[in-house]
Design a protein that fits this description.
mainly alpha
């Protein structure tokens, strides 16, 4: 494969155009707004020109975000991000609404029956319904507030054995066989988090109030209902989320209890404590799948090559183009992401790798997103490429599972490979209840917009208990337990983006089941679904992968039985 992927040529923007300020880009929006469109072909061209302009601006913003998260202490990066957020985005939002209205007012819009336009146009109609001019400055305030979470969390470090380190690196000690080391690290991490709990409480209060105002301005009773509209959740409802919660509580939490009992017994503990949840239950030292960020990337490319040489080629292109920042360091924002770069079509992967199994899984996960970005890069419109999270996370979570047969690249020792697979499958079982916890908590947050901090913590604990195991002993740690939610950046930065992980995890298990039964057909179905981008409703995209879009109790129970059977093979 070539060392770069050819970027789509600009046909609307000048080839040498670079954004300097809003005045430099406004004429292009005005041209689109004022253009005379005389037939369906001209309307298609209008959509393509709009897509080109928005793809350019999206990538410009993306690089500002990427640079800021790679170095949260860099004032120039923060300023560049802030300038776009405060002086470009609000104007863009205003014009986007005008362009949406122009598109739907066209007498030729019903002639756009090409694949993908149905999905795009229903989203445009929804955005027009909820758009309010008075919300534009509130979006700017929200973005500024959301970025504060990364700044606060990115500055968190602890000192252990005389070494200052990030919380991610300190977290590696939770896998040490010495319980004293684990407890010391866990307490240090949570004491450090607790230092900022009031600042993070205040920040969420500000976000909650602002978000409630956004919702009311748009005519919604609460921010939850507003976000279901804003996020384009056409294919499932609030009630479906509640059914998902109930299904997880009844079908997955009992398995979680089984795993915790087994862990407590294997570790020969009188009480299972929070710092005992990651250590290998057989007393073996933590797995070390790689030695450095470069080693992690090299091995990941080999895994992708084995799955399909084209997939490995995509990652090599990204490496050549400098589209990775993998290692944890002070001043770097927490978390990990694959950021699609709309104009170039080659994404950027950001993460905080130290040396553990979860880091390895993270790059496989983000690599799944990257594959998705690349296989959809040539779709005609940016709206066709911007998939909903339920589809995006299907791409990433499936990649974690369908690569498992090639994890010997990371673990040449068969016993280490067995442990790695077992740990990951157990982690999936633990992830589904956590997704339900975070989602249910967000429903409560915005259904009760005037709640106090004390009421919030009480609600969190009630929800947390519903979805966690009943074995772990939190005595003496109650103040930390009440603030577990503050470690979830989605609550601050991307509200209501979380149940997607649960829906997609179910889909990913289905993809993996298909892959285990027939690797070639399973991979083909997976890639067929990804290549659709967002040109079909979610249910049809899942169907392209030969899996149901279903999170009923019966379906989840059948998937859990499959996973438990796979776990049993590894025990």
């Amino acid at each position: 494969m070539a060392e770069t992927l050819v970027q789509r040529p600009r046909l609307f923007l000048p080839a040498a155009y670079e954004l300097s300020d809003w005045a430099s880009v406004q004429p292009f929006f005005e041209e689109l707004r004022d253009r005379l469109v005389l037939n369906a072909d001209e309307l298609r061209q209008w959509f393509q020109d709009r897509s080109e302009l928005e793809s350019y601006l999206s990538e410009n913003f993306a690089w500002r975000y990427i640079r800021m998260t790679t170095d949260t202490a860099n004032e120039a990066y923060v300023e560049a991000f802030t300038v776009f957020n405060e002086h470009i985005q609000p104007q863009w939002t205003e014009f986007a609404n005008q362009l949406d209205q122009k598109a739907l007012a066209s007498p030729y819009v019903d002639e756009l029956t090409d694949e993908g336009y149905f999905v795009t146009l229903r989203a445009i109609r929804r955005q027009i319904e909820i758009f309010r001019t008075e919300n534009v400055p509130l979006f700017t305030q929200q973005q500024a507030l959301q970025s504060q979470y990364g700044n606060i969390a990115g500055a968190m470090t602890v000192t252990l054995d005389g070494e200052e380190m990030t919380l991610q690196k300190a977290g590696d000690r939770l896998m040490q066989t010495d319980s004293t080391i684990r407890e010391e690290a866990w307490r240090a991490i949570w004491e450090r988090r607790y230092q900022d709990h009031e600042a993070l409480d205040t920040l969420l209060n500000q976000l909650r109030d602002l978000r409630h105002q956004l919702a009311q301005n748009a005519g919604f009773a609460n921010y939850r209902d507003y976000m279901f509209a804003a996020m384009g959740r056409f294919d499932y409802t609030v009630e479906d989320c509640f059914h998902f919660h109930e299904a997880i509580a009844s079908t997955v939490v009992p398995v979680l209890n089984e795993l915790s009992k087994d862990r407590k017994q294997a570790l020969q503990l009188t009480e299972l404590r929070p710092w005992d949840k990651l250590v290998d239950p057989s007393g073996q030292p933590p797995l070390k799948p790689f030695t450095s960020g470069e080693d992690l990337l090299t091995k990941t490319i080999e895994v992708f090559d084995r799955l399909d040489p084209a997939l490995g080629g995509y990652l090599r292109v990204m490496r050549t183009m400098g589209r990775f920042d993998l290692e944890s360091r002070k001043g770097k924002a927490p978390g990990g992401y694959n950021y699609p770069l709309e104009e170039s079509g080659v994404p950027f992967i950001f993460m905080n790798a130290t040396s553990n199994l979860r880091d390895m899984v993270t790059i496989l996960h983000e690599g799944g997103h990257a594959v998705h970005s690349i296989v959809t890069r040539d779709l005609a419109l940016n709206s066709f490429r911007n998939v909903p999270s339920e589809v995006a996370e299907l791409a990433s979570m499936s990649m974690e599972l369908i690569t498992m047969d090639h994890w010997d690249v990371f673990f040449p020792n068969p016993e280490d490979l067995r442990r790695a697979k077992l740990e990951h499958l157990e982690d999936i079982i633990e992830t589904l209840p956590w997704v339900a916890t975070v989602d249910a908590f967000q429903h409560w947050l915005y259904e009760n917009p005037t709640h106090s901090v004390e009421e919030r913590n009480a609600a969190w604990l009630q929800i947390y208990e519903r979805f966690t195991d009943s074995i772990t002993d939190w005595s003496g740690l109650e103040r930390f337990k009440a603030y577990q939610w503050q470690r979830q950046l989605h609550i601050y930065e991307v509200p209501f983006y979380y149940i997607e992980y649960g829906i997609a995890q179910l889909g990913a298990i289905g993809v993996w089941k298909n892959f285990k039964e027939n690797p070639q057909k399973g991979l083909e179905g997976y890639l067929n679904a990804l290549k659709l981008g967002y040109t079909r409703p979610m249910g049809e995209i899942y169907a392209a992968a030969n899996i149901p879009f279903d999170f009923s109790k019966e379906h989840i129970a059948s998937l859990m039985n499959f996973v438990r059977a796979e776990v049993a093979k590894l025990q």
